[in-house]
Write a structure and sequence with these properties.
Chain lengths: ~325, ~700
Amino acid sequence: MRELDYHRADDAAGAVALVSGDPEASFLGGGTNLVDHLKLGVARPRVLVDISRLPLDQVEEVELPGDSGGGPGLRVGANVRNSDLAAHPAVRSGWPVVSRALLAGASGQLRHQATTGGNLMQRTRCVYFQDVTTACNKREPGSGCSAIGGYARYNAVLGASEHCVTVHPSDLAVALAAVDAVVVVLGPDGERRVPFEELHRLPGDAPERDTTLAHGELITAVELPASAAAATSTYHKARDRASYAFALVSVAAALELDEAGRVADVRIAWGGIAHKPWRARVAEQALLGAEPTEERVAAACADELADARTSEGNAFKVPMVTAATQHVLQSLQGGRR
Amino acid sequence: MSAVEQPVTPLERDAIRSVGTAHPRVDGPLKVAGRAAYAVEHREAPYDARPLHAWLVQSTVARGRVLAVDAARAVAHPGVVSVLDHTSAPRLQEGEDRELEVLQDDRVDFRGQIVAVVLAETSEAAREAAGLVEVAYDEQSHQAAFEETEDTYEPETVNPEMPARTEEGDVDGALAGAAVVVDATYETPVEHNNPLEPHAAIAHWDGEVLTLADSTQGVHPVAQTLAPLLGLEQAQLHVVAPYVGGGFGSKGVPHAPEMAVVLAAMTQPGRAVRLAVTRQQMFALTGHRTPTRSHFRLGADADGRLVAIEHEVLEPTSRWKEFGEQTAAPTRMMYAARNRRTGHRLVPLDVAVPSWMRAPGEMPGMFAHEVAMDELAVACGLDPIELRVRNEPDVDPETGKPFSRRGLVDCLRRGAERFGWSERPAEARATLEGDWWVGTGVAAATYPAMLNPGNEARISAADGGHYDVAIGAVDIGTGARTVLQQIAADALGVDASCIRLRIADTDLPPATVAGGSSGTASWGAAIVATAQRFRADHGDAPDPGVWTQAEATDAQSEDHALHSFGASFAEVRVHRWTGEVRVPRLLGVYSVGRVINPVTARSQLIGGLVMGMSVGLFEESYRDPRTGHVVTQDLATYHVASHADVRDLQVEWLDEEDPLASPVGGRGIGEIGVVGTAASIANAAFHATGTRVRSIPVTADRFL
């Protein structure tokens, strides 16, 4: 039997102090991913610091601080449960993509348990990462990547490295990338704000690091800036079964058209494509100021995917994410065909 | 107690009162209250005797030899009692089943093979210590990729004992002269059974008797298989399985984990040893459906009448134990054609041995045949139902015997009426609703009516007009406990409440496996025969205590071909952008003889349809050819249908009885629901999109 210490944190600063001071300590949120890892031997922390009772469970409409871009927005506590956030009226009206992404994820039971911060910190579901009898650089740096040349259906097509080809599993994160969310992080030296695109990282030669956070830094909230585009946003998750499946690819998009039907503002993020939620900035630039026709969207996606690298097992992702993006942008135009 | 042989006569129609009624599941309340004890939940003696927990250590190489098992760190772990390996495990008697030679030598035949067993006071300690066992291997090269190799061979038989090859007429000549030919290859992947309850057992050895609470589809088969290997008389191996959380064939024969827990218990006399196989371990140790590659050539005249049928199968077996799935078997009896050829060739691989998975043979074989028939219908410009009607045989093409009942056309016609088939556009890719291409498809199903010899029942008169009815049958969740009570009631001519049924224990009269959709017919025949003999011997007012034990003879006609049939109808939607596939409607209509209990029968057929949809759309195990390791080894990565996938799903059966097939009048319903369903979905997906998919699962990427 493996023994570990369990602390129930009373305040965020105390939790941060406990974890940042101990390389073998880990935060425990909803536990929907970490507890699996404990059973599988994928994670072997010596200390668990349970942050699920911290009072970070509010969704508030606020004026955002300057370093979150200012203006009206929403502040979501890190412990807000996925199901509560998905059902929140302000989210549903101002950031529907966030609600839809959450509802596309996991199962009802898991969404009741999983938290906003924990969702962003969940780890890849690569079959090799989760199986300690196989080599995996993310789980055991330097051991090799079994997914290269192996089971490829869920592998990345953009931004992968020779050390890791997996994808980030979160749906919520894809939506947050699309709406330019800001992550509020508490560390030993105080609070900082991280633009969402800078939270997750590409694998490079250090795939064991999913995010840019230092060990012991704790997500306390996520801030969502309001915008016309965010209010006209949606999410499509393409998957094999109708629920309880990770994305083959997913598309989060927000769109604002001018009076002539040209793109005034567009944000596109892709899931199932890369080691992080993939903000499709090249495609966005290509669409700005133009009418988002089927052909133009396909061309914009082709630009974004110019560096895509695929194998037989995941080559379908390039046409699939292109078509899903066409579908999503078309539906945001009111179903015009 | 010895049994008498009793020629059995079918249940008389006017004696049927309980059979056919919607009797609620007798063990339902226990199960929903969580009070039905599954294998590792037994707490009664002797399973309460200071229980130990076993954990399996599995090989990490696909082929080679174990050089050394270093258990020092594991044994030092708190709570660990011992670690067994091939040098320390009890020796077994010589046998012919390599799968059950657990820890008998240093040979590694496949990745995931049991190479050590850890025994500890808690499951947590056992699990942790299992990770501390260090195994050194001499690794040898292996072949785990399914491809034609120079070792490919034609077996003598395929499961269970069918000829691997059949040939009649001049297939090549008929194909050369055929007006229409379909020549295509169809594939099904590795699939894993995944019953809800993983394999599990508790064993206790007192030095004389080995007691085993198992999760199995047959207690007597387990005892019959394991006892000789253990050097025990069968009476020394007492197996019970009162409640079992499904099997789908994977618990039809004992697998290595059962032998592992038994061996472990024999090293610890007086202590119970508990083993719960993990979901991940099931993907290596408890059987799977081998992948299949079916090459079909169908030749037809201009009217769509088949002149030639050829079905050549290539599929893997494990190198170290042969299992040939009888993929072409249903092709031999399905449709009329004068010229026919079927054959199986096996590719030996260094992988876990394939085994039974719900409708072995029929599931993959009929997927291939029924998609080929759909292609033929398109090629002939015929409605796919009309094509099948035109190819109805007068007698069984394989044996020349008349069918006791050939219900296929009735199923097709009834299904067509109910499904609204007449409104179907003839052309593919004709209907776009919103973002979805919509189509419908049909496929036929068949399954043989099996009735196994070797079943006995015992009926004893009790006080107050009650009867004790005993047979070693196992209810794996099918409803056997309920329907056998109904059958016994009608066989004895009493109310069902007068029957006290005991099952699932080797102390009871012997029974065959809950497999092959044979249980109700086989066990029911024994009960009916015993009741008839009981009444003959003891009359209608027997003294309490008198009893009869009998086995049925003449239970099934030998002069007829005995098969169930069915037709499944699917509506499929394919997303025009992403290719995602959904099945909003599924209907199965079946000809299965008499239905003993419409409640449990409906569950069986619906469950079969759901599983058929699941293999049609989702199920696929990825075995990494570099390591022979099945890496999709949990239910997050091995997809089975979720609730959201199961939409409008209907089953119906024809009102019939078949006393030629069994004394209870039924032909078995456990497997036919999974046959043909995947083909109806693939055919509907073609109708929706115009894209022909010849392999399952039918996934979104096929339509991009």
